[in-house]
Structures are given as C-alpha cells and as structure tokens.
Amino acid sequence: MKPPRKLHIKSYGCQMNVYDAQRMVDTLARENFVETDRAEDADLVILNTCHIREKASEKVYSELGRMRLAKQARARDGRNMRIAVAGCVAQAEGEEIVRRAPVVDVVVGPQNYQNLPQLLARAERDGKAIETEFPAEDKFALLAQPRPAQIRARGISAFVTVQEGCDKFCTFCVVPYTRGAELSRPVVQIIDEAKRLADNGVRELTLIGQNVNAYHGEGPDGRNWPLGKLLHRLGEIPGLARLRYSTSHPRDVDDSLIAAHRDLPTLMPFVHLPVQSGSDRILSAMNRKHTVGDYLATIDRFRKARQDIAFSSDFIVGFPGESEQDFSATLALVMQIGYAAAYSFKYSPRPGTPAAEIEETVSAADMDERLVRLQQLIDSQQSAFNRAAIGTRVDVLFERAARNPGQIVGRTAYLQPAHVMASPEIIGQVLPVKIEGLKRYSLLGQLASSEFSRGNQPAASSVSIGA
Length: 467
Ligand code: SF4
Fold this sequence. Notes:
By secondary structure, the protein is of the alpha/beta class. It contains 15 helices and 19 strands. The longest helix has 24 residues, at 364-387.
C-alpha cells in the first residue's frame, strides 16, 4: 500500500468554512490523504477562503505568494505540491485566480467539494481544474462523513450545516452570489449525522447556515420542517446535552423556533440575531426587510418564551449614507436591548453588490470614531453581563484541559469560557460551577460538587488564562 499523502487546509472566516474544511478532510481521507499542520510538508494545500472581510481576495493572493515559495522549495527536493483555492473567494473569482496566480492547480467553489478527488485527478492530467458551478446534486449526501476516531479527535462540540445559501440579497452582502440560493438538507440526513456524532462523544451540536432559521428541509413525513421542529427532533437524541444554531435572520424567526426555546431545555438560551443598524432608513437601504420595531418585537417574543435568554448581534458601522443621527439610533437600540456580546465592523464595499455602487460614503475618520463608540458600549454591556455571573451557580459543559496546569475549561450556556481546577474526567460533562471571579472575558470558579475538584481555585488575579 502506498504511504498516505499529506493535506494541509487553511480555513478562513465563518463556521460554515470550518464545517466544509472538515468534510473536505473526510472526503480526501478516502483517497489516502492525512492532515498535516505544516504547509511545507503537504502534497496538497487547500486555502479555504472567506469573502466577508475587507480585501479578502488580496489576502488570498499574498498567501498564494507564500505557497509558491513553499512549492518551489519542495520541487527542489524532487517533491510535488498541489495548491487548491476553495471557499467564497474561489466562487467569486473563478478563473481569475489561476490567471493571477498560475501556481494554483485547482479552484473549487463551495458547492463542488464532493468532486475534489476528480478535480485533483483532472489537474494531474490537464494541469488545471476549475469548478464553480451550482450543481443540482446534493453535495451533502456525497461528501464523506468523518470516521469515529476522527469525530472523537475533534472534541465534544461539533457543527452541522443544515442550510446553505441565502435569498435575502442584503445590499452589502456577497453570500447570495457566492453560496447561491437557499438550500436546506433533508431532516433524515441531519438526524443521521447528529446521531453518529453523539454516538462518538459529541455533547454539543451547533446547527449552522448562512440563514439558519430559514431552514425548511424535507421531513420524513414529506413536509417541509421549520428549524424549531428540527430542533425538537434533535433534542430526542441521547447524549446531546446542548443544542445551538447560528446565524439567524430576524425576519425568519417563526413560532416553531420560539416554541423550541420555551420547551427544549437542551436548546441554549443564547441567540445570535444580527440587526446591522438601529436606523430604519439604513435598514431599508441595506434591504434587510425588517424595521427596528420588528426586531424589538422579535426580541420580546424570545424573552417571553424564556426569561434567561440573552442575545448577540452583528453591526455594520458607516454604511453608505449613514448620518450621525442614524448612528445614534444604533447606539440607542444597543442600549435598549443590552447585549451579552456583539460583533461590529466598519462597512467595506464588496465588488458586485448594490451597496458598492452607492456614491454617498461615510468618511474613514467618521467610521473609525463611530466604531470606537459602538465597541465601547458593547464592551461595557458584555463586561456587565459577565460580572453578573459572579456569585451565581452556572452549568458549564467542559471541553478540554486549559493551558494552565490542572485547569479544565468549558463554556456556559452563553458561550462564556469558564475555568476550574479539576480532574480531566469532567471533560464532556455538564456540571454546576460556582463563579467566583472574572479575568478578561473568562469566568473563574469552582465545581459546585467536590467530587472532581482538584484543590482550591487560585485567586482570580493569580490565574493566567489560556484561552
Ligand atoms: S441575510 Fe445574511 S447572508 Fe443573506 S444577504 Fe443578508 S447578510 Fe447576507
């Protein structure tokens, strides 16, 4: 038998890319590839790109410059290296990538990963292979699933893509162009994948999709199931202690999702619900298809269903035409809601999107200044939320040993890292922790039951946090 070939994947961006990278690893494992952390040792390097951040494609080309040097170094030793570009930049740029970076052998869009083995063979034969179609076949059914040992090695928390693509066409966003129209996986396929993960030690499942609560996959009864119904079904799988989902669109929050939060103890009371702006004028220019009032009403429905629910959000600062008044409305919305966490970014145009054509831009200085103000407000809310945990008992799902010897780290329901001194036996368990202190964004505490404790937790100020 031939020795295995080595594969190095560098993944950028969102959780969907993390999931896709794992499926690519699993698919190429069938072709006798094993993963390596070192690009220079790899027979195949895949750059799994993201188009969301500013200058995304420029960053890919500069990374490809580094890969060209690694490829040349291997060639000097008589060894080959194939280079593939995957992800949203591959989809958006297609053949242009090979034109600008002839070192690239394969360009593969997110809908075509199931064809990676054939694309590599084609590149071997013809020199290059490019595939960025949106095929009719179900890529999820064709992509390989991880082997049990691989699932165990990846830890107790896993992502499962349930939905891909978006039909909303927000004017700033490239997703509808790079990931295509909304597509939901069938319920049975998701349940099978979730059961296999749970059977091999996964305790927490995060359902992911660009617009996850637009999920409408075909159920075993032949009807389209909404996300809430899918969550109810997943809640019956033994071993799954926690369920989450991301990212949601405010417009697609339906009664089934609210009911799931009301009825399912395993569904975590933490919802990422991007609003992007607190100004109706800007929301309309963004084509978000909801108003501030709609958003507030949705938050209210969640809160009525589950009192301990908390929210995070995304904000874009300096969208074309945003006035100081519009921005003040965003600050007012943040004040009104009180987030546990949030991500905020300066607007940057994506080529090909309608917003990129708007001439009325916000100056760089105004954007910088607004971003600082917004982030200060969000930071103060996040700190207050974290401080409120001190002195309380919270359930923590323990994930791994921390860098500090003797410490184990896990996450609360709100994804706050929590550190305790304990034995590694607790990894994979949900246990109550008495929170005693805070260091940066991490909670420090002691196991409420002494069974697994390892001495007393050092004082907060003397603990150096790994994560
Ligand atoms: S809903 Fe989300 S993914 Fe869809 S276009 Fe808007 S920002 Fe992009």
